[in-house]
Amino acid sequence: MIVTGPFSSGNQTPRLPRLPTPPSGWPIGSYATYEEAQRAVDYLADKEFQVQDVTIVGVDLMLVERVLGRLSWAKVLGTGAASGAWFGVFIGVLLSLFNPAQGFSYVPLLVGLVAGVVFGAASAAMGYAFTRGRRDFSSASQLVAGRYDVLCQPRTAEKGRDLLARLAMGSHG
């Protein structure tokens, strides 16, 4: 079973274009959220409709940046040190596993941990210092659409539109 999301490449079918290509098909439904559009396509699949003829298209795209919190030197250094520590531990484990000495040694692990903390904190500090206070917050960005249209190839569009009309009216039979 192949599971795909709104931004996955979905290499499961050979008909997908290799270059960015505008979608084709006739609109058979329009929804305010991706979840609603996904539910509509799932309904079509449950009714054994040819869903390979269907495309969900996000219209009126927006980049939404949600502010997560204020940054401070303590947060920047702590986050940098923590991410560096994880990388250092990973490198230390690899070095310990391939150590020519017999048995597992903790020395490479500790060296990797300390070096990771130092380099992680230093690189985070440099990045934060270069902003010179112009970006004292952390955020997460997300691409969101104003609406989601469900398009269908003309050969099956009428049947798809009829099924989605039944879904909208609440008669799922």
Automatic annotation (TrEMBL):
The keyword Oxidoreductase does not apply. Residues 1-12 have a biased composition (Polar residues). Coiled coil: none annotated. InterPro entries: GSP17M-like_dom. Keywords: Membrane, Transmembrane, Transmembrane helix. The keyword Heme does not apply. The chain crosses the membrane at residues 76-98, 104-130. Residues 28-101 form the General stress protein 17M-like domain. This is General stress protein 17M-like domain-containing protein. It comes from Saccharomonospora glauca K62.
